[in-house]
Please model this.
Amino acid sequence: MTHSEEDYIKAIYHLGGTENKRVSTNAIAEQMETKASSVTDMIRKLSEKEYVSYKKYQGVSLTDNGEKKALSIVRKHRLWEVFLVDKLDFSWDEVHEIAEQLEHIKSEKLIDSLDKHLGCPKFDPHGDPIPSKSGELTKTTKKLLNEVELNQTGICVGVKDSSAPFLKFLDKHGIALGDKITVLDKEDFDGSLQININDKSILISHQIASNLYVRCD
Amino acid sequence: MTHSEEDYIKAIYHLGGTENKRVSTNAIAEQMETKASSVTDMIRKLSEKEYVSYKKYQGVSLTDNGEKKALSIVRKHRLWEVFLVDKLDFSWDEVHEIAEQLEHIKSEKLIDSLDKHLGCPKFDPHGDPIPSKSGELTKTTKKLLNEVELNQTGICVGVKDSSAPFLKFLDKHGIALGDKITVLDKEDFDGSLQININDKSILISHQIASNLYVRCD
DNA sequence: ATATATTTTTAGATTTGTCTAAAAATAAAG
DNA sequence: CTTTATTTTTAGACAAATCTAAAAATATAT
Model:
């Protein structure tokens, strides 16, 4: 399987082109920053190889085989992200591009060993689940902090707004990736939240809360 | 710089096509398991990009720029080999193929971090020196054990014969990669060697000695 | 429902890296 | 110093992945 074929499979997967949902040619073209005509060509090839089911003008969806392939690529991508953050001290927002390259390295033993070396992590640095070797996904929803219910606890796994000012704000108030956050109170008036983080209780605005992703297992 | 271009540069480097020594088209073709005509084409391109100096029918040699590039690729290759052996518990004879893929990953920060993470190693698992970031090579000769002088000490860094029987022999007699070996005596009669290894003194045949590489710093 | 707009596909061209087969240059041998 | 053999280069073709421009199918709007 080609580097490029893998990229297409992954794109279709991320657009949700699985379990009977069909994905349009244009959507894939946009996702991959290429032209629709190129997409049609590649889809033809993937269809012949039975990674996708394709009907002219009706879009594509992954076959079982294609989805398995997609999950294996996603697994590699996310494991490498964990490696970069946990072992090489990259910050979670600079690993994507490199993982995009590393995910194409071909060696089953390499991925198995890497997985063990990292302690078989279940989530990547952005809080997204890592598919198991057999392709199972831990189905946990990552949600915005303002959607978390009262007295529930979540782990901070990412940001929606990744602008420098926002990241600086988080840094200043001691909110970091991996921190455990409990929602103590919700103000009806302006939607601001009283939260517990690192054994301190602080008040944060709705705008902050609606840009912070947490995972509640 | 393309994946393929990098492969050619590396091949020329390994054939010694540096410092005024020219390498023949056929030699490159053989090394890369491709055809001479393909080599000519690629050499043209590399010549235009000034990575090699090329005169028709006279072979090629790397320019300063090309050599720098080659050293950077070799550096990546060998650092990844160390990673695979030291961190992922690969054995030193199964890492080459994977490192061949990993050496093409593009990220300066990645290699710098990897280097630090591994403790800035000076040699790869085969005993070959790892070029520094600026392209300097520790010039130590790796030699066969039977070429080591009396009372000199070397570190076991590889084998010439990598057949299963030989590796089994080494295992059985407790000779492993990284072991310190001192040559205590040489028998004129049959060339066998009395060596000290792991605080034990043993006698090994010339045939064994002439298939074991050591590094004497 | 018919005209218009959008999406998707086709047809033909391009680039990269490769190949085969034939021609040209160099090296080796008598 | 010719003739033969080897090496290297050219010429032309091919597969992969892409693009542009035009045609075909589908969707939208009045």
Summary: Chain B is about 40% helix and 15% strand. Chain B touches chain A at residues 84, 87-90, 94, 97-98, 101-102, 105-107, 109-110, 113-114, 117 (CB under 8 Å).
